[in-house]
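Example 227.
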Amino acid sequence: MSMVDNKVTVAIMARNEEATIENVIRSVLPLCQETIVVDGNSTDRTREIAESLGVKAYRDEGRGKGDGIRKAIDVAEGDIIVFFDADGSHESADVPRLAAPIIAGEADLVVASRWKGGSDELGGDWSMFIRSTGSAFIALMINHRWHVKLTDCENGFRAISKDVAQTLGLEETGFTIEQEMVMKTLKKGYRVQEVPSHEYSRQAGESQITVWKVLHKFAWNLIKNMF
Ligand SMILES: Nc1nc2c(ncn2[C@@H]2O[C@H](COP(=O)(O)OP(=O)(O)O)[C@@H](O)[C@H]2O)c(=O)[nH]1
Ligand SMILES: [Mg+2]
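Predicted structure in complex with magnesium ion:
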């Protein structure tokens, strides 16, 4: 594949993110050939705002981010899909850095690592402690199983070749989709790389993850995909 063949789609995942969606869209628009919003059945103005900026908005049922990711893989027109959260926590300037190794033919999935880029969100309270240690543990297991050296398998900010994404058979409905994507990519023998990227605190509203309620889902998903 040559450079000119690679069209990049940024797919913004948004469920009730009216406070931040406009700035997020504006920040990625100049960095890609297509910007889409996957709206998780928002009850606020998220979708209207996206459409008013001339961006195509697709809807999932709002059952979870995994459904949204699958929707993006179905509808994206680009050869490379960069997934981007709508809450202002990702560094848009890193979009081209995530796409670059795929464009260069050196990787199939590139995950933005908060362990390498720093995070304003991971740390400071119990819930964040569990998220950080859980995430480190999952990376450890994945590294052991596939002989890789990854640090962050949970970050939603990542780029993937659409062709590869379509072969993975992703099944998860919720936030476990991120680690499922990493494991299935490795399992199929595709190449996973990381690029450092800083994570900012979500700029409005609250995370839709309640750690204690979902911990078992992450553990079960890890076991299921490891074997
Ligand atoms: N399309 C879609 N996006 C969702 C859904 N649930 C959450 N999101 C988005 O996924 C992103 C990450 O969610 P967030 O609650 O910030 O999780 P955290 O960053 O891991 O704490 C945000 O931009 C949410 O708006 C959903 O059901 N569908
Ligand atoms: Mg967030």
